Each structure stands twice: as C-alpha cells, then as structure tokens.
Amino acid sequence: MSSSAATPRPLQVATLSTFLLLLVLCHQPLALASPSPFPKDLAPLNVVGPEQSYLYPGFQGLTSDNNTVRLGLDFQRMLRINHMLYIAARDHVFAVNLTTTTEQIVPQQQLTWRSKDVKMCAVRGRNSDECYNYIKVLVPRNDETLFACGTNAFNPGCRNYKMDTLEQVGEELVGQARCPFESHQSNVGIFAGGNFYSATMTDFLASDAVIYRSLGGEGSPVLRTVKYDSKWLREPRFLHAIEYGNYVYFFFSEIAVEYTSLGKVVFSRVARVCKNDGGGSPRVLDRYWTSFLKARLNCSLPGDSFFYFDVMQSLSNVLQINQRPAVIGVFTTQMNSIPGSAVCAFYMDDIERTFNGKFKEQKTSESAWTPVAEEQVPKPRPGSCAGDGPAAAYTSSTSFPDDMLTFIKSYPLMDEAVPSVGERPLFVRSASRYKLTQMAVDTSAGPYKNRTVLFLASEDGHVLKVLASTDPNATSGSTLLEDIDVYNPSKCDVQGDDRRVLGLELDKEHHALFVAFSTCVIRVPLSRCRNYGTCKRSCLASQDPYCVWLKTGSCASVTPGFKAGFEQDIEGDHSKYPDTCHNVLATTRNQNSAADSAYGVKGAPEMDKASHSVHYTLLIACVLVAFVLGAFLSAFVVSCYCSHSAHRHGQQRSSS
Questions:
Q1: Per residue in 187-226, pLDDT tens?
Q2: Are 123 and 131 in contact (CB under 8 A)?
C-alpha cells in the first residue's frame, strides 16, 4: 500500500531537481553558449549627444554653386599642410586657414576646376550626375606646389597649383594611371624622391588595377605592376601609401588569391617597391617592378580559433609606438560576416621581417599554397634593392639575373603574415551593426605628451575617442572616453541621410578634429573639459588626457606650455574625491541630472536593440534550453498528476 503510493517519488524529485537546475542555467544563458569571439564592448565614459554636437561649425561647400546646392559637397579627401587645411570635392578645392577657423569654417581660397568633357561623358552612357570633375588626388609635390588630379568626366587629368594662392602652374597632364576614372574607385598617391607613386585603375571599365610610378624624369623610368596578373593584384581597394627608408609602401585590401577555394575572401595587404627600382631586363619584367612584394596584415583576436578582421578601412602614417616606428589601422570583418571592427598596430620592423621571410607558392591549380623551399630561392634575394643588402653588387635592377626576375614575377606573395603589436587589437567593437570607417591618431596627447588617443569614426556618423593602451605588458586595456554623435542633418542632409564618415583630419595645435561626410565637414573640439565646470571628481574621472584640473578650481583643456599648476589622474581611484557635483553639472552642461552617473559624467544610453548582434550559439542554446525545460516541466506536471492519482487510488483501496 505505502510502496505503491511512494513509487513516483524518485522520478518526481529528479524531475524537480532537473527543473531547478535548468531554471538556474536559463538565467545564465552565456554558460550554455560557446564563448563569444569578441570581448565585451567598452561603454563610453561620456556621451556627447546632438544637443551639444549640433552647435559645432560645419562647411557645406559653395552655397552660390547650383550643383553644390542640388548634389551637395561630394567630399573626396582632406590634406593638412602646416596651418592650412585643403578640402577636395567635386569641381572645387577649398583652402581653410586653421589659425582663423574657430567659430566657422570659411575658406581663405578656393579653386574651381570644371570638366570640359561632360558631353563626351554622357555619350559614353554615364549618368549626368557622374560627369563632373571629382578631385581624387591632392598631394604636396614640394614645399610650394600642390599636385591635383580629377576624374574630369571620365577623362582623368592632373595639374600643379601654387599652395598659397591655388593658381595653376604649367599645363594640364594626362591623369590615366594616376587618377581613377570615377569618384567611387579607390586610389592613393604620393611623391617620393621626385617621382609620383600612384595606385588606381587605369581604364574606363576598371579592369586593370595598377601600382604606378611616373613624373620622375631621366633615370627613373615609368614602371607598373604586371597587367592582369591576379598573383600581383586582384580587385584591390587601395587605402594608403607611405615613404619609409628605401621603399614606398602601399596598403590595400584585395581578394585573396591563396583562398580561392573558399570563395571571394578579402585580405588586407602591405606591398613595397624599391625607390631606386629601374625595371627588369629586356627579357624579363621590362618596364615592370622588379622589387614588388606583398604580405598579409594579421589583425585578429587570439583564442582556440582566431577571429580575423580582414578588411582594412583606414591607416595612419608612420608614428611611434613604444619607441618603435609603426602604423595603426582600422579593420573590419568580411561583408557577409557578423559586424565587427578592430584597431591594430604594426611595427615597421615586423613588416620588414616578413618581407625577408619565406615566399608562398601554389605548385598546381589544385594544390594548397605552401612555403617555397629555401634552396629554390635564387640569388640575389628577389625583392632586394639594387646596390643594397643582398643586391649590393648590382648597380641597377636592369642587370639582375633572369632567374631572379622570373622568380619575383611568379612569387610576389610572402608566406607569413605581419603580426600586430601584442598580437591582438588595441580596440574592438562588435555590439554595433555600424562598422568603423576612419581614424585619426594622436600619439603625444596630454600635458606630458605620453598618451595615445584614437579618434575612430563609424558608418552612423559617430566618432569614438579612445585612450589606447599600446603597451603589451600593461595590466589595463584601452578606455572608451567619449562617443560623439557628430552628424548634423541640418548641415549635412542634401540627398538623403548619408551618415558614413569619409575622412578625419587632426588639428592638434588648434584643439580640433575635422570630420568629413559626403556633403559636409564638421569641426569638433578634441575635448569638452569646460562641461565639468568646478567639479573636480568629474574632471579627473573623465580620464581625458586633454583635460586637467587647475589649482584655481576649474577643469580646462590642455594647452601648449602646460608645465605646473594642474592635476591629472588618468588611472587613479576617482572615488576618493567627494561626490558633490550633480548640481554643478546640471547647470554647467544643461543636462538632466538623472542621466548623470555617480562621477558626474553622462553615461552611455541604452543601446538600440537593432544595434546588437546576438551570437548564434547563444540563440541555439536558448532554444534548446526552452525545449528541454518545456519537456521536463511537462514531465513534472504529469509526474505530479500520476502521483496524486496513485495516492488517491491507494487511499480508496485501503478504505475499502
């Protein structure tokens, strides 16, 4: 009798235990999912909303120009030389004097260069809105001359202009291989050693990508990459070029030829050519580079399985990181991948070490890519500069042995990738569906000029200010200081809401950052120290290298010559300062006190649900938990019912 009533009890207890365990696990869904490949996104210490950023001055181009009124500015690039900022756009270049640009952005000079080939452009079947002169190249040729190239209604041309007056000097030059045919094609250009190095598309159909040297005169022949050879270039998107040592370096993204079995996978590359390259012999590589080498840039998160940020978006010039020459770049995930962005740095000597490493080859079209055996590499080493290093015995590249030239023509790709500083990103952002697009870097921020600050712009018109931790041995990582909503529809919205940031230019001397969109350029202060007023805790807790607490009792921006009479505490314990700042900040910043954090700094708002990326393993785990939980809950109810029925049946039998 009693045993009959107690039979369901073990199942009931087990079911209840399992139910409670699953209930606990359900409240900890991350434990059931595989670890996310991304670290948790940093929350900004301060958020600058439209109510403040909309007050920043902007420039929209010539309001008297009908095309500008109808189509907008059509920004192409910015160039800062000393105290002048040059803004290249459609049909115009504007020169802004930075010493006088504080309240408004007013050009001191401007040049207008309209195309005379508009009718021919239309005959070729192009849209009338494309048949303008988009200024795609704007670089200093020397201390007095600017070199500019424009699409010229799909007939590229180049001119020289005086820097101070923007007056044309000399005749117009052919722009083919120096400038793309249309505004959306990528390109880079730089003068080095009197030669103009360019990377762009050379034809109307954009089928021939080239890295090109010209304008050098006698002794520097015109050279280019091998035509239509995917081992050299395959659908590249050129981003930056720099001169460093004996070489000119080109940074770009392209379809990876070594991963064709996986579809069109984009890799970031660095390529280099010798400045004294004279081309090959009449038999091999005549009028082509003999020193062209390229390698992959590895920007990834380490772990059991590396997560790669393969698509380069922006790159700095050579700067100092940990007292070593380096470059910093913004990288994003593949287009068909989950959204993610990262900032990685690369030492120049690591790039050199990679170029001195093994070459990569594919022996057959079906085989995998493998390192070239050392005994198969000819001498002097392919990629060497004539008169230097392994090729010191050769006065010119034209006298290089044919086997060396044949090797470099077939194997320009290096086997190993260039590792990033610390072998991990300086900054990662993954919770937003908007990727980072542009970057500006200050490696000497703060009163002691010992801090590195990154300004990172995104597709949604925001600029993130990051205090970067560049020391691989540092105990703390980077800090997201500010999230600034820069895009201003009243100034920038002409033909729809295009919030993507296209350019950043730092003007540290005048404490400003110029943020360029397609239709406008906005001037943003590097800091907002005055917002903290007389609140010491807020000022120091902002951790902003550009802000200091003065002994006079106020928060101020760092200015040149700061030596004493201030306090700054970037990594200290800010809770030791009294929390009496809310009323001060409410008056100073005109913000709701409920939005202020305990430090008196406006915290990050709750992120839009649409901006979150949920890891698929978490979703699968939640579905499985829900399914199992439902099954066990049903079993628990049935068990209780059966137990209750059996108990009643036993009582009835005993009473009878």
A1: 999 999 999 999 999 998 899 999 999 999 888 999 999 9
A2: no
| 516-534 tens-digit pLDDT | 999 999 999 999 999 999 9
d(CA 335, CA 604): 28
Kind of pairing between the strands at 418-419 and 293-298: parallel
DSSP-assigned letters across all residues of 61-95: --TT-HHHHHH-----EEEEETTEEEEE-BSEEEE
The sign one gets for the Cα dihedral 504, 239, 428, 605 is positive
Length of the chain: 656
267 & 365 share domain: yes
Which pTM value belongs to this model?
0.84
Based on the domain organization, do 272 and 326 belong to the same domain?
A: yes
Query: Cα separation of 159 and 380, whole Å?
Result: 40
Give, for 188, the enclosing helix (H) or strand (E): strand 188-192
DSSP string, 465-533: EEEE---TT-SS--EEEEEEE---HHHH-SSS------EEEEEGGGTEEEEE-SS-EEEEES--GGGGT
* Total domains, the chain: 3
Q: What is the DSSP letter of 392?
A: T
Select from 497, 532, 531, 503 the least CA-distant residue to 516: 503
Choose among 552, 655, 520, 541: nearest CA to 599.
541
Q: 169 and 144 in contact (C-beta within 8 Å)?
A: no
User: pLDDT tens digits for 344-391?
Assistant: 999 999 999 999 999 999 998 888 999 999 999 999 999 999 999 999
Q: How far apart are CA 370 and CA 59, in angstroms?
A: 52
Q: Which domain holds residue 570?
A: 528-606
**Is 463 among the domain residues?**
no
Tokens of 117: 């080939």
Residue 579 is assigned to a structural domain of this protein: yes
* Six-digit token string for 540: 């120091």
> And the tokens for 331?
């990288």
CATH number, domain with residue 78: 2.130.10.10
Cβ proximity of 332 and 311 under 8 Å: yes
* Cβ–Cβ < 8 Å for 281, 405: yes
> Which of 411, 428, 445 lies at the terminal end of a domain, its last residue?
428
9 and 131 both lie in a single domain:
no
Residues 648, 536: one domain?
A: no
Residue 288 placed within a domain? yes
Within 228-349, strands assigned E span: 237-244, 247-255, 266-274, 293-298, 300-301, 307-308, 311-315, 319-321, 324-332, 341-347
Q: List the CATH number of the domain containing 585.
A: 3.30.1680.10
Whether residue 364 sits in one domain with residue 266: yes
Inter-residue contact 364 to 247 (CB < 8 Å): no
Question: Do 392 and 316 share a structural domain?
Answer: yes
pLDDT band for position 650 (50/70/90)? low
The verdict on 254 and 400 lying in the same domain is: yes
Co-location of 249 and 145 in the same domain: yes
